[in-house]
Task: structure prediction
Amino acid sequence: MKANEIATKLGTSPSEISRWRKKYNDPDNFETAYEAACAKYTKILELDQTTHVSQNSGDNEWYTPTEYIEAARSVMGGIDIDPATSDLANGVVKAAQVFTLDDDGLKEQWDGRLWLNPPYAQPLISQFCDKLADSVRAGTVTEACVLVNNATETQWFRALIDVAVAVCFTAGRVRFWSPSKESAAPLQGQAVLYAGPNVSAFSEQFKPFGWIALVQR
Result:
């Protein structure tokens, strides 16, 4: 399999695949090692999908801890819209307008101060992040706090960075909560990205969770 095909499947770059091919130093057996890596990656992706609010049904429901929501509300002065949520999750978020799995928030217009914890699986995460970026540029979303994995190498993370003014990289993995299970953390760290005019407030509210990076252009 070509390096660009492998890279697309694993969400990395062809140069990174080529580097690991050379490091492995056994071209004839690389594909076997690659298949094993793919199997592991698929399992990780399946686990990651079960630790997120996008799975709005049964035991797969996982929600953002209250302290992150309260920090976002303090920064923005309120939350007007959460386009990827459930009625139960909104008991904590308290957004004035919500779109659930049944509503399909991707088809709706997003307005005002937004909180977003998007579905982590592809292609949904890219679609939600792209829509947010477009909504910020269009001016319909005036402020936004977005909680995602800190996958800085991905296209969807770069889409968020393009409109963000600050990022909080959490010191530890966020422990999402469930109404029917004990809390659980994804398999990698998270980041909260902020778009809006209140950079100082964001830095002050989110610095207890990790370290703050200001986006410079």
